[in-house]
Specification:
binds 4'-deoxy-4'-aminopyridoxal-5'-phosphate, seven-stranded mixed sheet, 13 strands, four-stranded antiparallel sheet, 385 residues, single chain, 14 helices, binds glutamine, alpha/beta
């Protein structure tokens, strides 16, 4: 085995979901909803499975889906994209892997913001890249001029930028995006933007794609996922969108990584992307209500809850909740002794981890959340200093 992968632990999401199953715990760890997906999109997939071909679709994706993605971003985000710029992939994860393999050469520096989605660093390392880490600091997790000043070097080839951000639940604002875009242009860096959460943001916030900032369209690979747009995380239909030369590079890797993605699911996603604003508004309203319910329940139980601007997640500051136990120990005991699973944030750091914050998924039915709150209340009583 490649020594890098021999050393890697099982992903924290798989680890915690495994423990949740073993202990029959309420699983507020791994990010997946237990409600909220559109039945018509699932029905469309069922029809496509019985009524359409199940043979290889075109390598870059079914034309109807590529057109639907381009049309969706024009309507929702004001981007001008030709369908030729869209490469359909097996989830955002494949789009990220293909982009990193295509766009970095051994020794290139790749800027990553901590805490980071778990797949980024192993994929960068396996592609021969050298991760350069910039740390977002709680409780604000902001990008500021000082952070950007130290983040880039002459060897930086690419930055991976996730917005809205998992796990901090930040939606970076126009000022923060401008700082990053300006540095990308100045240092001639490619931005690989992981925007899988682009529709899951709350309290009237609007998603700003980094590609829409001056000088960015030609240097950005924008990654999206139907899994988050339609709350169907297991479907693994994603895409990369980029200027023609970058898109061609990504396609060259994609053709030898997975080649194609289930055609029937592509048809259903193409259909779903035609939904009007009402769908997105209703989806956001349901998840915002779930967020508020979990936050209120946790606060009543004595927890210090950090703001959640987007994603399915909210974070809790254990130290500020009167709990001295570190995040890993807290999560291991909570799932085994109290039957509730959470994600320790320190698992999403490569170095200098924050160890007093845990992440909880609120995209759950009220009864799931209520049971989770009761069990977390028990965990706090058990582990309070
Ligand atoms: N990036 C981020 C930031 C995510 O949170 C996730 C999944 N939750 C992914 C990528 C993976 O998306 P997919 O399941 O489409 O591969
Ligand atoms: N993205 C999901 C999360 O953050 C997990 C995906 C996975 O398990 N790889 O919880």
């Amino acid at each position: 085995m490649h020594p890098l992968f021999a050393q890697l632990p099982v992903s924290i999401f798989e680890h915690m979901s495994g423990l949740a199953r073993a202990h029959e715990a309420v699983n507020l760890g791994q990010g997946f909803p237990d409600f909220g997906w559109p039945d018509d999109v699932v029905r469309r997939a069922a029809e496509a499975l019985t009524g359409e071909a199940s043979q290889y679709p075109p390598m870059r994706g079914k034309p109807e889906l590529r057109e639907a993605v381009a049309g969706h971003y024009a309507a929702q985000q004001g981007l001008t994209i030709e369908s030729e710029q869209v490469i359909v992939t097996s989830g955002a994860t494949e789009a990220l892997a293909a982009s990193l393999m295509a766009l970095i050469a051994p020794g290139d520096e790749v800027l990553l913001f901590q805490p980071l989605y778990d797949a980024y660093r192993p994929l960068v390392l396996r592609a021969g890249g050298v991760p350069r880490l910039a740390g977002l600091k709680p409780p604000g997790w902001r990008i500021d001029a000082g952070l950007i000043a130290g983040a880039f070097s002459d060897r930086t080839q690419l930055v991976v930028f996730n917005n809205p951000h998992n796990p901090t639940a930040r939606v970076f604002d126009a000022e923060e995006l401008a700082l990053l875009a300006e540095a990308c242009v100045r240092h001639d860096v490619i931005a690989l933007t992981d925007e899988v959460w682009e529709h899951v943001l709350f309290d009237g916030r609007k998603h700003i794609p980094l590609a829409s900032l001056p000088g960015m369209a030609e240097r950005t690979v924008k990654v999206g996922s139907a899994g988050k747009i339609f709350s169907l995380t297991g479907w693994k239909v994603g895409w990369a969108v980029a200027a023609p030369a970058l898109a061609a590079a990504v396609a060259n890797v994609h053709q030898f990584l997975t080649f194609t993605t289930a055609p029937n699911l592509q048809s259903a996603v193409a259909y779903g992307l035609g939904k009007s604003d009402e769908y997105y508004e209703a989806m956001r309203a349901r998840f915002a209500e779930a967020r508020d319910h979990l936050a209120a329940g946790l606060e009543a139980a004595g927890y210090a809850v950090l703001p959640a601007e987007g994603t399915y997640f909210l974070n809790v500051d254990l130290a500020a909740s009167g709990i001295a136990t570190g995040d890993v120990d807290f999560c291991e005991r909570a799932v085994r002794e109290c039957g509730v699973a959470a994600i320790p944030l320190s698992a999403l750091y490569a170095e200098a981890p924050v160890t007093n914050v845990i992440r909880l998924c609120f995209a759950k039915k009220r009864e799931t959340l209520d049971e989770g709150i009761a069990r977390l209340a028990k965990a706090r009583a058990l582990m309070r200093a």
